[in-house]
Task: inverse folding
């Protein structure tokens, strides 16, 4: 049973516009959410995170929004750049004995020049 | 230095072979993980080690055998694999196993092909 879902396998946006990547989760116990970025032939790299006590976290061009009631989070990239083209993974984790990360299947972002 | 280093980057092996994947982290972390990424599927957690002790095994077949000789090194020993085991195997580390607000740092992965 997939607890973190990214329903859009791909997204294409024009350079300079906003990219919005979405993620849904089912486990209400999750209290920390992360976005990872993955280039081809490389492992995922941490991008930005948000704790469940917040509804927004911003880092430069990247902003993550969390809607706990809807169990939904999104990553906004403004303005999008061609170098942002990669696969983006949403991940979630929660309290408990083990720091287990639950990942979505990823969204491939293509930013066109 | 990337922090988490995996070797080899690519591996092709027959179903009767025995091989090992290696992971090394230079971050002083206490927890290390093996993940499997198959095409168009979420990352799957395979094994978790905390301070060299295995703390989680997510129902992984016995043909995958992990080894953690110290907190900086993690191995995944492979034997009699199946073609469906072909995937990208990622190693990760984090400061601790417990707690929710710890991000994991990933290696570049080993692309495994079983023929």
Result:
């Amino acid at each position: 049973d997939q607890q973190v879902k990214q329903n859009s396998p791909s997204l294409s946006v024009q350079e300079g516009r906003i990219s919005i990547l979405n993620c849904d989760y089912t486990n209400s116990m999750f209290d920390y959410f992360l976005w990872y970025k993955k280039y081809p032939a490389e492992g995922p790299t941490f991008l930005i995170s948000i704790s469940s006590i917040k509804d927004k976290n911003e880092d430069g061009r990247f902003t993550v929004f969390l809607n706990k009631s809807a169990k939904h989070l999104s990553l906004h990239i403004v303005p999008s750049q061609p170098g942002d083209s990669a696969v983006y993974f949403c991940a979630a984790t929660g309290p408990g004995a083990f720091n287990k990360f639950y990942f979505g299947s990823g969204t491939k972002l293509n930013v066109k020049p | 230095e990337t922090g988490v280093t995996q070797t080899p980057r690519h591996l092709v092996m027959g179903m009767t072979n025995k091989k090992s994947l290696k992971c090394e982290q230079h971050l002083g972390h206490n927890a290390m993980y093996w993940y499997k990424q198959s095409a168009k599927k979420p990352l799957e957690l395979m094994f978790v080690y905390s301070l060299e002790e295995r703390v989680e095994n997510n129902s992984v077949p016995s043909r995958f055998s992990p080894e953690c000789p110290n907190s900086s090194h993690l191995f995944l020993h492979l034997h009699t694999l199946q073609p469906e085991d072909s995937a990208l195997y990622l190693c990760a580390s984090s400061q601790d196993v417990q707690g929710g607000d710890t991000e994991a740092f990933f290696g570049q992965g080993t692309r495994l092909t079983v023929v």
